[in-house]
């Protein structure tokens, strides 16, 4: 029976390794999916500005473009942050402080991405002279924010478990 | 797993979970209300309006089909929120990594993955088929990939916690 659990644990470790490879492939794709259009748009607002960009001037137009990509950048950051989680699990460190902190950070960045998308970016863009702030009440974004907070909380619980286990081990030693 | 957590840690988790449970309940009710309005009430209004205006039934059915298909990712996310609510509800009761809670975490992960897949492939393809296309469409949504990866990580953590629970149960049996 114990052998069976060990076998499954080994399988889970192998799966973490496979996910880690998949993750490593996905990151450049995500960076390219966000970075390339951003570079293109920055080029356009700087060298071939649309009427709105020409009216605002290049620095403000560039700032608006950068801001509009901030949620996507935060979302990519959340995905990148999962790397230590997969690496730690692959190395068999299940109750790992590093992994749980990375998991928390991933949740935090995902939450930040949706906060940026819903409130901060539209408001900042309107303050910079872009389109007026009109909050679009998108419940899908709110649902995603709620689920991102789940990731954050589970990361927190795992971190607490890791800290408790470490304290218990330190007491024994 | 619970035995590894100190009383203070469990109390902290319980109070945080209590706050989150309330937020999740509000989010669940809000999303359910909006989904009911957009994808239950609206189709009924559309059928009645179409019948009154003498519209072709196929046009009305196409509109309703597209409307229902577009609801799929949100419905799956709603299921995820429901599962997360139950997880935090158990955490409030002091069950942190119980088998039921681990299964709940896995369900949240599965809902996030399936919502992302629905947004990326299933909903656009079904919408295309309703319009008469026969291809598989792919709609790149910036949030969907990130949610899929986070969902995968949650599902994986649930798997690891299941193993931890099994190991603990076996150790308890030996002792």
Keywords for this entry:
heterodimer; A: about 170 residues; mainly alpha; about 0% strand; B: about 180 residues; 5 helices
What does this 3D model show about the protein?
The complex is a heterodimer of chains A (173) and B (175). Chain A is built from 6 helices and no strands. Chain A is mainly α. In chain A, helix 1 runs antiparallel to helix 3 and helix 5 packs antiparallel against helix 6. The longest helix of chain A has 46 residues. Chain A is elongated. By secondary structure, chain B is mainly α. Chain B has 5 helices and no strands. The longest helix of chain B has 47 residues. Chain B is elongated and about 75 Å long. Chain B starts with 6 loop residues before the first helix and ends with a helix. At the A-B interface, helix 1, helix 3, helix 4, helix 5 and helix 6 of A face helix 1, helix 3, helix 4 and helix 5 of B.
Note the run of SSEs of chain B as H and E: HHHHH
Distance between the termini of chain A: 30 Å
End-to-end CA span of chain B: 16 Å
Q: What's the average pLDDT of chain B?
A: 85
What fraction strand of chain A?
under 5%
How much helix, percentage-wise, in residues of chain B?
over 70%
Quick recap:
The complex is a heterodimer of chains A (173) and B (175). Chain A has 173 residues and is mostly helical. Helix content of chain A is 86%, strand content 0%.
Helix-strand blueprint:
The complex is a heterodimer of chains A (173) and B (175).
Chain A: H1 2-47, H2 51-56, H3 58-81, H4 83-90, H5 97-127, H6 139-172
Helix pairs in contact in A: 1-3, 1-4, 3-5, 4-5, 5-6
Chain B: H1 7-53, H2 57-70, H3 72-92, H4 99-131, H5 142-174
Helix pairs in contact in B: 1-2, 1-3, 2-4, 3-4, 4-5
């Amino acid at each position: 029976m114990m052998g069976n659990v060990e076998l499954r644990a080994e399988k889970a470790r192998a799966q973490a390794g496979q996910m880690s490879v998949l993750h490593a492939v996905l990151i450049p794709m995500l960076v390219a999916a966000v970075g390339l259009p951003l570079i293109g748009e920055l080029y356009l607002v700087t060298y071939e500005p649309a009427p709105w960009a020409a009216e605002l001037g290049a620095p403000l137009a560039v700032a608006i473009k950068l801001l509009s990509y901030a949620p996507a950048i935060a979302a990519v950051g959340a995905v990148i942050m999962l790397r230590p989680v997969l690496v730690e699990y692959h190395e068999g460190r299940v109750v790992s402080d590093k992994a749980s902190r990375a998991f928390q950070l991933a949740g935090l960045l995902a939450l930040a991405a949706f906060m940026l998308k819903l409130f901060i970016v539209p408001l900042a863009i309107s303050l910079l002279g872009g389109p007026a702030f009109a909050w679009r009440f998108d419940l899908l974004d709110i649902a995603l924010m709620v689920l991102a907070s789940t990731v954050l909380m589970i990361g927190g619980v795992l971190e607490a478990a890791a800290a408790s286990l470490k304290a218990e081990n330190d007491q024994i030693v | 797993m619970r035995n590894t957590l100190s009383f203070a840690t469990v109390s902290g988790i319980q109070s945080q979970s209590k706050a989150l449970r309330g937020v999740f309940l509000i989010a669940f009710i809000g999303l359910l209300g909006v989904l009911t309005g957009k994808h239950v009430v609206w189709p009924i209004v559309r059928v009645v309006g179409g019948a009154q205006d003498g519209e072709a039934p196929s046009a009305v059915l196409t509109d309703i089909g597209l409307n229902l298909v577009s609801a799929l990712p949100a419905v799956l996310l709603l299921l995820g929120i429901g599962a997360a609510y139950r997880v935090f509800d158990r955490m409030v009761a002091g069950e942190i990594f119980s088998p039921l809670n681990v299964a709940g975490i896995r369900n949240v992960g599965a809902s996030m993955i399936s919502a992302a897949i629905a947004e990326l492939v299933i909903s656009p393809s079904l919408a295309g088929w309703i319009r008469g296309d026969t291809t598989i469409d792919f709609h790149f949504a910036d949030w969907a990939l990130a949610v899929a990866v986070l969902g995968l990580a949650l599902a994986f953590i649930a798997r690891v916690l299941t193993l931890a629970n099994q190991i603990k149960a076996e150790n308890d049996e030996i002792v």
